[in-house]
């Protein structure tokens, strides 16, 4: 298993380019199931999850040519309607094949995702929505078995805002008979990007980016080409990396409008931000002030940035109360930060960070994808050397992170 070795100290400076959004790429790839015509996707991130989705699609019948950040997927016929446990346990987003398989092939068998390092992550809202559209759903031997004669449009209210739940239902509704209304939808840019792609494929969709999405089902969808949006979480991670080192970093090829909650918070801590059309420059170096953080669905502060900003708050002066509203167990990184010298106390969904603390290098373990990024930021400012274990979490969703950070001046290397 690979590890990262990081020597702390120094400011980051220079330019970093953001890749495509993992969480927009995965649903875009799953959307290929909805049509026999080819889908050409560009700006996919070069990360492990994209390969996992490729293998899953190939397993169920796609021919998928992935070439760097471009991919062509043709899903002429279905070889299997099963997403097996081995694939789903690697990547929960595998559940995104459920809606499209049901909509086009009228059956699907998808392993239940099971436990997760960041909290309970049920898929009941995906299943309830599909059931309202006419699917018969049974859970048997750890699998969701779903079938239908046809999916019919329905009015569906999500009790909790769910990103992949909204995406699954959006894809199912695109080929369902009649009109579907989805209420209390996720408004994340990744959901909007999926709707834009589906519309290019011929779907009739209105309201993406708002709480209510209306879909009028069509009989079939067609070929399309699409550029996946830039990864706002990757961009946000480099924003936090620049600020924590008091550096001067320009993050290019990003969408500043997708990062308003992140940049607003950063400005409140005292860092300077300059927004361009497709870039953000972060100028740190002044005193960092603590700030409370609440994670919540978009457009609020993303849970996927919580660990990285917790690292930042260990270097800010004062108390910061970080409230995790989305997942009920997303503080696994706290113990690792504390091993590096951070002063953080957790009570239920709140973490209280007292800063600034001098961090010192240690051997730590990544517990999930975003926790890995948080630990890297802590290591970059820590005194001495840190080794981070279980880097495979990082590889699932960050493209060439060591290279990108090294180019900004970080001392980071991978130990095979
Ligand atoms: N929830 C339910 N029932 C459901 C679905 C969700 O109770 O049927 C609850 C969850 O337990 C959670 C909340 O709703 O408390 C929100 O979960 P959501 O469904 O929105 O999460 P997700 O779709 O599984 C996506 C991202 C995550 C990101 C979350 C929140 C993808 C592939 N994954 O997950 O990304 O944290 O939305 O924004 O889009 C990551 O990239 O590191 C990552 C974990």
Layout: helices, strands, pairs:
Layout: E1 3-7, E2 13-17, H1 22-30, E3 39-42, H2 48-60, E4 63-67, E5 70-74, E6 82-83, H3 85-88, H4 98-105, E7 107-111, H5 124-132, E8 136-140, E9 143-147, E10 155-157, H6 163-174, E11 179-183, H7 189-200, E12 204-206, E13 213-216, E14 224-227, H8 232-244, E15 248-252, H9 260-268, E16 272-275, E17 279-283, E18 293-294, H10 306-313, E19 318-323, H11 333-339, E20 343-347, E21 350-355, E22 363-365, H12 369-381, E23 385-389, H13 392-397, H14 401-407, E24 411-415
Parallel strand pairs: 2-15, 3-14, 6-7, 10-11, 18-19, 22-23
Antiparallel strand pairs: 1-23, 1-24, 3-5, 4-5, 7-9, 8-9, 11-13, 12-13, 15-17, 16-17, 19-21, 20-21
Helix pairs in contact: 1-2, 1-7, 4-6, 5-6, 6-7, 8-10, 8-12, 10-12
Q: What can you tell me about this protein's structure?
A:
The protein has 416 residues and is α/β, with parallel strands linked by helices. The protein has 2 domains: 3-19 and 230-415, Alpha-beta prism (UDP-n-acetylglucosamine1-carboxyvinyl-transferase, Chain); 22-227, Enolpyruvate transferase domain (UDP-n-acetylglucosamine1-carboxyvinyl-transferase, Chain). The chain is built from 14 helices and 24 strands. The chain has a 4-stranded mixed β-sheet. Strands 2-15-17-16 form a 4-stranded mixed β-sheet. Helix 4 (98-105) packs parallel to helix 6 (163-174), helix 5 packs parallel to helix 6 and helix 6 runs parallel beside helix 7 (189-200). Uridine-diphosphate-2(N-acetylglucosaminyl) butyric acid is lined by residues 23, 26, 92-93, 120-126, 160, 162-165, 186, 190, 303-304, 326-327, 369-370, 397.
């Amino acid at each position: 298993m690979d590890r990262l070795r990081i020597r702390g100290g120094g400011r980051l400076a220079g330019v970093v380019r953001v890749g495509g959004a993992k969480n927009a790429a995965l649903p875009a790839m799953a959307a290929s199931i909805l049509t026999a015509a080819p889908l050409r996707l560009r700006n996919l991130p070069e990360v492990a999850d994209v390969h996992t989705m490729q293998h899953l699609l190939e397993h169920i019948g796609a021919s998928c040519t992935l070439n760097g950040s471009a991919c062509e997927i043709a899903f002429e016929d279905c070889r299997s309607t099963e997403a097996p446990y081995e694939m789903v346990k690697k990547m929960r987003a595998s559940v995104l094949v459920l809606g499209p398989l049901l909509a086009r092939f009228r059956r699907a068998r998808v392993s239940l995702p099971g436990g997760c390092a960041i909290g309970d992550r049920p898929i009941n809202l995906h299943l309830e929505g599909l059931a309202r559209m006419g699917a018969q759903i049974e859970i048997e031997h750890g699998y969701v078995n779903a079938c239908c004669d046809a999916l019919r449009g329905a009015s569906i209210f999500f009790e909790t805002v769910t990103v992949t739940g909204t995406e699954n239902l959006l894809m199912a509704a695109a080929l369902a008979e009649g009109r579907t209304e989805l209420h209390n939808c996720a408004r994340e840019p990744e959901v909007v990007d999926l709707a834009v792609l589906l519309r290019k494929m011929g779907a009739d969709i209105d309201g993406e980016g708002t709480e209510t999405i209306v879909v009028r089902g069509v009989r079939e969808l067609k070929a399309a080409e699409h550029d996946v949006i830039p990864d706002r979480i990757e961009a946000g991670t480099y924003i936090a990396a620049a600020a924590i080192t008091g550096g001067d970093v320009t993050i290019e090829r990003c969408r500043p409008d997708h990062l308003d909650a992140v940049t607003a918070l950063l400005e409140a801590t005292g860092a300077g931000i300059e927004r361009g059309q497709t870039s953000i420059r972060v100028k740190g170096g002044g005193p960092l002030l603590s700030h409370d953080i609440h994670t919540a669905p978009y457009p609020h502060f993303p849970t996927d940035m919580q660990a990285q900003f917790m690292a930042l708050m260990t270097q800010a002066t004062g108390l910061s109360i970080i409230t995790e509203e989305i997942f009920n167990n997303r503080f696994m990184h706290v113990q690792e930060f504390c091993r590096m010298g951070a002063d953080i106390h957790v009570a239920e969904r709140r973490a209280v960070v007292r800063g600034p603390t001098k961090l010192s290098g240690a051997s730590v373990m990544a517990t999930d994808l975003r926790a890995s990024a948080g630990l890297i930021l802590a290591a970059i400012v820590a005194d001495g050397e840190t080794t981070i274990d279980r880097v495979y979490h990082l590889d699932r969703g960050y493209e060439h992170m060591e290279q990108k950070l090294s180019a900004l001046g970080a001392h980071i290397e991978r130990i095979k």
